[in-house]
Amino acid sequence: MTFSRLIPSFVLMLVCTNALAGAPTIDAPLPLLAITERGELILTDDEFSFIPWSSETGLGKVHVIQYFGANLKHKDIFKPFTDLLQTSFEPGAINVTTVLNLDAAMWGTTGFVMSELEKNKRMLPLAIMVVDDNGSGVIEWDLGKAGTGLIVLDHKGIVKYFSRQALNETEMASTVELMRANIKK
């Protein structure tokens, strides 16, 4: 193949790759986010480690993914909703994953953030907690300037709800009902 033929092929490949990324779209598959640096925090025999994580983790159940920056401004943005989930669903009925954007942490606070994350993992050992060192999710899911997102997926990984901001009471109630309607029976 000549060089002049390679250029259009390369441009087409870039366009197709970029078309796969973007803001989550209702009733479409969630664009894949794979985190290989750090990733999911695991606690085994009182020792912490990390394994690679992918947004495809958790398929088979209704799945809530909350993504936010590792800073005080965002730490409780979706807390009212996740608290509601704890009282609305039996343990194990849904998957909830927290993805923490470590790239948004203030300079010099990474140690504190990791310590808090480990403390939370000890309190909630079954919780899925993921560290995104480079803020990949902000770019892959087009989370905007705030870099926050709440995504609800059905058991097949299809986006059923997406918000970049905290939910009000009406949105929380309707999202819980949406999740109930999508639980695989």
Instruction: Tell me the strand percentage band.
Output: 25-35%
What's the CATH H-level superfamily name?
A: Glutaredoxin
Ends: how far apart?
A: 53 Å
Number of strands: 7
Strand neighbour order, sheet with most strands:
2-1-5-4-3-6-7
The CATH top-level class label: Alpha Beta
Structural class: alpha/beta
**CATH architecture classification:** 3-Layer(aba) Sandwich
Q: Total helix count? A: 5
Q: CATH topology, anyone?
A: Glutaredoxin
The best one-word shape is globular
What is the CA-atom radius of gyration, in angstroms?
18 Å
Low-confidence stretches: 1-20
- Largest beta-sheet details: 7 strands, mixed
Helix content, binned percent = 25-40%
Mean pLDDT: 87
Output the helix-strand order: HEEEHEHEHEEH
Number of domains: 1
Write up what this structure looks like:
33% of the residues lie in helices and 26% in strands. The chain is α/β, with parallel strands linked by helices and 185 residues long. It is built from 5 helices and 7 strands, in the order αβββαβαβαββα. The relative contact order is 0.21. The protein is globular, with a radius of gyration of 18 Å. Mean pLDDT is 87; it is low at 1-20. α2 (79-88) links the parallel β3 and β4. The protein starts with a helix and ends with a helix. Strands 2-1-5-4-3-6-7 form a 7-stranded mixed β-sheet.
